[in-house]
Design goal:
The chain contains seven helices and ten strands. The protein has helices spanning 45-52, 75-85, 101-111, 116-129, 145-157, 175-190, 202-207; strands at residues 4-13, 19-29, 34-38, 60-65, 68-69, 86-90, 163-167, 194-198, 210-215, 218-219. The structure holds adenosine-5'-diphosphate and magnesium ion. This is ABC transporter ATP-binding protein.
Length: 225
C-alpha cells in the first residue's frame, strides 16, 4: 500500500475569475520514499502540499492517504488523520518563542492526545535525535535559525507520522544546518516515513530519491513515474 495516492486531482479556487491551481495531478508516494516537488512560483506546489496535508480538499479527483479515501471526511476526521499520520515543516518554523524547547515539543504531544505518561520520554528522545537536548530549557525565541528549524523537525516527527511534508525547509539555512535537516529527514525515510519536500534548493533536490516538477498545475510528463 502506498502512503500517498493522488489520482486526477484538480483544485480550482472559486475567485473571480476562478484560478485553476491543479489541473489533474497524479502522484504516488511509497513508504520510505523521498520526493522533491519543484516548480516555479504559482505552479501549484503549495496547493498540492495543502491537499496532501489535509489542509485543503480537491475540487475533484481522489486522494487516498494510507489507503483511506479522504473524500467526504468531515473536519474532525481530517483533524484526527492529520494528527495521527502527518508531520509538517515550513520555511518559517512555527516555534513558540515564549515556550521552552521541551514545551514546544510537549505541546505537540498534548495536541495529538498522547497519554501523559508517554510524553516525557518521547520529548527527551526526539530532542536528543535533533541535537537539542542541551537546549531543552531555553526559550524558543533564543534559538538560532538552524536550531529553530531542528526544533520544527522535532515537533513534526515526535508524533511518529507516516507522511512528512515540508515547504522550503532548507530555504533559509546555511549548508551545515541544511545538511542536518536533510539528515533528520533521512532518518525518517529509513524508518519508513514518506517524505515530500517542496524546494527551490538544489541541495534538497539532489538529496531526494526523485523529483517531480509542477508546471501550471500539472506534473511535467515523462518525469513522474
Ligand atoms: P506555488 O506554491 O507553486 O507558488 P500555489 O499553489 O501557491 O503555487 O498557487 C497556485 C495558483 O493558485 C497561483 O495562481 C495562486 O495565485 C493561486 N492561489 C493560491 N491560493 C489561492 C487562494 N486561496 N485563492 C485564490 N487563488 C489562490
Ligand atoms: Mg508556495
Amino acid at each position: 500500500m502506498s502512503v500517498v495516492e493522488v489520482r486526477d486531482v484538480r483544485r480550482t479556487y472559486p475567485t473571480s475569475p476562478p484560478v485553476h491551481a491543479l489541473l489533474g495531478v497524479d502522484l504516488t508516494v511509497a513508504a520510505g520514499e523521498r520526493t522533491a516537488i519543484l516548480g516555479q512560483s504559482g505552479s501549484g506546489k503549495s496547493t498540492l502540499l495543502n491537499v496532501l496535508g489535509l489542509l485543503d480538499e480537491p475540487t475533484s479527483g481522489t486522494y487516498r492517504l494510507l489507503g483511506e479515501d479522504t473524500a467526504g471526511y468531515d473536519g474532525a476526521a481530517r483533524d484526527r488523520l492529520r494528527s495521527r499520520a502527518l508531520g509538517f515543516v515550513f520555511q518559517e518554523s512555527h516555534v513558540l518563542g515564549h515556550r521552552t524547547v521541551a514545551e514546544n515539543v510537549l505541546l505537540k504531544l498534548v495536541a495529538a492526545a498522547v497519554p501523559r505518561s508517554e510524553r516525557a520520554p518521547l520529548v527527551a528522545d526526539v530532542l536528543h535525535r535533533v541535537g537539542l537536548d542541551h537546549r531543552a530549557d531555553a526559550l524558543g525565541r533564543l534559538l538560532s535559525g538552524g536550531e529553530k528549524q531542528r526544533l520544527a523537525v522535532a515537533r513534526a516527527v515526535v508524533t511518529q507520522p507516516r507522511l512528512l511534508l515540508a515547504d522550503e525547509p532548507t530555504g533559509n539555512l546555511d549548508d551545515g544546518n541544511a545538511a542536518t535537516v536533510l539528515d533528520l529527514f533521512d532518518e525518517q525515510a529509513r524508518a519508513g516515513v514518506a517524505v515530500v519536500v517542496i524546494t527551490h534548493d538544489p541541495r534538497t533536490a539532489s538529496w531526494a530519491d526523485r523529483t517531480v516538477r509542477l508546471v501550471d498545475g500539472r506534473i511535467e510528463p515523462g518525469v513522474e513515474a
